[in-house]
Amino acid sequence: MNATPDPALYNEDLAPVPPEKRDWTWLNMATIWMGMVHNVVVYEAAAGLMALGFSAAECMEVVAVAYFVLFVTMWFNARAGTRYGVPFCVLIRSAFGPFGAQVPVVLRGFCAIFWFSVQAYAATQAVDAIVGTVWPGWNTASGLFIGMPLHRWGAMALVWFLHAWVMNHGVERIGNFELIAGPLVIVIGAMATGWALTVGHGLGPLFSVPSRLHGWKFIAAFAGGVTGMIGMWSTFAVNIPDLSRFVRSERDQVVGQAIGLPVTALVFTPMAIITTSATVILFGHAIWNPVDLLLALHHPVITVLGGAVIVLATLSVNVVANIMPACYDLINIAPRRLNFHRASFLVLGLGLLFAPWLWFSEAESIFHVLDLISGLLGPVTGIMLADFFILRRQYLSVPDLYKRDGIYGGRNGWRASALIAFVVGGAVASAGIAIPALAWINGVSWFVGLVVGAAVYLGCQHRRTVVKPQTGLT
């Protein structure tokens, strides 16, 4: 920093990571993604695709397209973080202005905390199953408190403590945690797949189920399936700089994400289908929830070990995909009062306020809320890409990102062009929810939001001119 930053926009956690401290390699990025892709929600997503009528092979095709699109998007959006070492909540200021940036930052933070809460509750169910298996008396504490049994509250306390313990070690140690967690989850998943292949004497009945979709129905369902898969990670598509700022080179972040994202997803999806296929043989119906499967097997050792893996997988995805981004978003709102340590505990507290145990019985409601937010984040992704690659030509004046009167300041800290693009893009992407005749947009809402947001943003910038790279743009 060669200029005095505004204290309302800067603290040590928001400051650029100096090149000498950007020491994450491709292996760090790959293992982080391995840990994130292996979680309960992604595991159950295969069930959602098969419920739409896809065959197992077609599920793989949907996953391949969705994760390839995600990889390309994150590859480009991560570049600014790697080049300048700043997080998403700071980078977005070049498009929205230092105060206008709070709009997408708060939206992203809300979604991150919500996802953390839901994922943590999935781990809570696993811990509850583990303790109840080891200590049967645990389940006798069945009195209800705010709609949840007391023994489940005890399990939730343990899960929240584990998250706090991991976060208390700071960003540097989180990378080391993922080096162990990501590959370990893959090894356990491979063991479960081996068991399923033995039980099913092959790939199992789910792989013999033919597709029920043909013609235009297949095309519409395919587009919806791809958008749904992208929707699960659309929040992370905007804040990937929060991770890439610690990576030592562009090559490392590209190679790491290529191995950790599409490749891992294509390995994990058939694992989920094969394992579930074995449950059809054993129980006569498919069991897609891993915790329900562990309890159905009635084997204490398997329940304990399997539950521990679910908890590890949840910690792995929650720490880097939800808590870390939410911390930066909260710090961006109040940099004078919050640092990474304080913000992480605030995220844990706010996560409880979402009362995930009340939402879990209404899974459709969860995804309706998250799909709406994902549709709004499509324009944010488009605006970020258009701003950095087309308008800024990949050059930013880092000191000006921390000043309210710098070249990105707009009018009193707000840049109308980005806000207009965000509103228009979000409205178009969400139009199918309010107007039945436009319901087809719901199947491609993320893509529509991205394209419209980028186009409107660039259209509002037609009078802007490029200035010298070292100073940024007007």
UniProtKB/TrEMBL annotation:
Cross-referenced CDD domains: SLC-NCS1sbd_YbbW-like (cd11485)
Cellular localization per UniProt: Membrane
Domain of life: Bacteria
Gene3D superfamilies to which the protein is assigned, alphabetical: Hydantoin permease
Its membrane topology: Multi-pass membrane protein
Cellular component aspect of the GO annotation: plasma membrane
This protein's UniProt keywords: Membrane, Transmembrane, Transmembrane helix
Entries under PANTHER family matching the protein: NCS1 FAMILY PURINE/PYRIMIDINE TRANSPORTER, PURINE-URACIL PERMEASE NCS1
Entry similarity comment: Belongs to the purine-cytosine permease (2.A.39) family.
Protein name: Nitrate reductase
Organism this protein belongs to: Kozakia baliensis
Source lineage: Bacteria, Pseudomonadati, Pseudomonadota, Alphaproteobacteria, Acetobacterales
